[in-house]
Each structure stands twice: as structure tokens, then as C-alpha cells.
DNA sequence: CAATTAGAGACTTTACATATCTATAATAGC
DNA sequence: GCTATTATAGATATGTAAAGTCTCTAATTG
């Protein structure tokens, strides 16, 4: 059980875009080089962020990616969910025993984790 | 990013053993049948718990597994660590930037999760 | 000794993350 | 309109780890 590299790439990209105060699009070429990953693969990851409305993409020459308007609200959890999906960390083997104690513990722990990640915004890291 | 099925099997086995107040060994055959998993595979998982001192094994006829003496102290985190390993959920791609903000957020969130899981003991689920 | 049980190791299968390749679509600048 | 540049999409390949099987060995019971 680990966060995927794709999540790592997405977080680093978001942080970089946030640090760039400018609105000029940043090409995937540059973003990929910084992180030592292939541009086509990173592009595929960033497309997920585009579809979730976290960043915008601009085709054509001098194109690239920019943060969306509401970027200051984007949390770590948002980014993780965009890449890893939103399904629970804990897969129950049987069907929905509602008073199952194991499930209760695991889901409540996961919720604690999500709350923490929901409160941490990319924008908080930039302001200082 | 998900908890493995092996973790699920380990948790269910521990809970079952805890509910069995008796000290009689329970064979892997029976444990596996309940969880619809092959005995040899489950055996491999339970051996990890034996090595961490959470359960004891008894070979030979009428053998099986019993909880260890200190079983009331065993937390969810202990079991998860025994199966999934203890390495961090977040793999940092570069080497140890100590003031890295991303790493700081991810590790602190993970610590919150671990604290919650450390406070939940198998024995708490049985007492009621 | 015979039956039963856990443990160990090699191996296979499956699933998924990671990545590559190629073709298409959109845009800028000339 | 033409060309270069850039993102997007889909098919495909590779790598890795989880999940599971098979077989042999060791310990214990009776
Ligand atoms: S006991 Fe709980 S965790 Fe296990 S299968 Fe049933 S509902 Fe799921
Ligand atoms: S920026 Fe932080 S998370 Fe990223 S590689 Fe460096 S230390 Fe690791």
C-alpha cells in the first residue's frame, strides 16, 4: 500500500504551477524534465487534473498548463483523489455487514486521514 | 492505493481468535474456510503474525494458532505493519530535502492515520 | 509408526502501475 | 493557408507486486 508515483508527479506539478505566480502556460516538456519523467506519461497524468477542473490546458504553440481560477481551494486530497480515484482504501470481502467492527475502525481511520489531507491546500505552501 | 487482501485476512483472523475465549489452537483449515481463502495462502500470512509475536502456532495433530499472551495490547496498526511492512506510504523521489513542504504534509497525514490505528485494539472490539 | 498440522521455498497467475508509441486535434505566428 | 508547436487519445508494451498454488519438510499427537 503506497501512493503511486503518478500522485507524486501531480503534487509536484501543482506545487510548481502555484509557485509560478504568472499565468503563462507551462509546457509539459518543462514539467517533465524537472521531474525526470517522460512527457507523454506526465501529460496523461495532467489530463486527469484538467478533467477535474484543477488546471487548464492550452493547445498549440506556447501552450501548456495553467492553474484554474479556483486553485487556492485545491487540497491535497483533491489531487490524490483525482489520480488515485475515490474508492475506499479498505475493501470489504463480504457484503455490507453494517455493524461490522473491523470495517468501522478502518473507515473511520481513513476518514481521519482524508480530513487532514482536505485541510492542507497547495496554496498554503506558497504563501510564505 | 489499497490495503491488501492479506491485511484483511489477518484482521479477520485476529478478531476471530479474540472472540474465541478458549485457548485451544484453531487450525488454519477452519480459519481459511470461514474466509474463503486457500489454507496454504492463509498459512503464509499467519506466519508473519507468528514472527511478530502476535499469535503462537502449534504443530502436529490438534495444532493450530492461538493468541499470544499480550494479545490485549495488539493494535490494528500492529497487524497492518506486520503484513504490509512499515515503510512510509509516500515515496519521495529525490533525496531528503528536509524542508520539503510536500513531504511534510504527506508524512504528517500518515502519522495521523497511524495514531488512530494505533489506538484501536482488537481487544476493544471483543469486550462488548 | 501413522495421521495431522504448521512452515518454507519455488513457482505460477493475475492485476495494476508505469511507460512508450503513434496518430489526431487545436493554436500561434508567419 | 502553412508550419511548427503543443495537448489529447488510444493502443500497446513492460515491470512489479499481490495473490495464489504446489510440494516437500518439520513438529506433534496418540
Ligand atoms: S466482517 Fe466486516 S470487514 Fe469483514 S467482510 Fe464482514 S463486513 Fe467486511
Ligand atoms: S520536493 Fe519534497 S517530495 Fe518532492 S522529491 Fe523533493 S523532498 Fe521529495
UniProtKB/TrEMBL annotation, chains A, B:
InterPro entries named in the record: Tscrpt_reg_Rrf2, WH-like_DNA-bd_sf, WH_DNA-bd_sf
Signal peptide: none
PROSITE patterns cross-referenced by the UniProt entry: HTH_RRF2_2 (PS51197)
Pfam families: Rrf2 (PF02082)
Domain of life: Bacteria
GO cellular component entries: cytosol
Gene3D superfamilies named in the record: Winged helix-like DNA-binding domain superfamily/Winged helix DNA-binding domain (1.10.10.10)
Any one Gene Ontology molecular-function term assigned to this protein's record: DNA-binding transcription factor activity
Name of the protein in question: Rrf2 family transcriptional regulator
Protein's organism: Lysinibacillus xylanilyticus
Lineage, opening ranks: Bacteria, Bacillati, Bacillota, Bacilli, Bacillales
Amino acid at each position: 500500500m503506497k501512493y503511486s508515483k503518478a500522485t507524486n508527479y501531480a503534487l509536484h506539478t501543482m506545487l510548481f504551477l502555484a509557485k509560478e505566480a504568472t499565468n503563462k502556460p507551462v509546457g509539459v516538456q518543462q514539467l517533465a524534465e524537472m521531474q525526470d519523467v517522460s512527457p507523454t506519461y506526465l501529460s496523461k497524468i495532467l489530463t486527469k487534473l484538467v478533467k477535474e477542473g484543477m488546471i487548464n490546458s492550452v493547445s498549440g504553440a506556447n501552450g501548456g498548463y495553467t492553474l484554474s481560477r479556483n486553485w487556492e481551494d485545491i487540497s491535497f486530497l483533491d489531487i490524490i483523489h483525482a489520480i488515485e480515484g475515490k474508492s475506499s482504501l479498505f475493501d470489504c470481502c463480504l457484503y455490507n455487514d453494517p455493524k461490522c467492527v473491523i470495517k468501522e475502525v478502518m473507515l473511520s481511520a481513513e476518514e481521519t486521514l482524508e480530513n487532514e489531507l482536505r485541510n492542507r491546500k497547495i496554496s498554503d505552501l506558497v504563501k510564505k
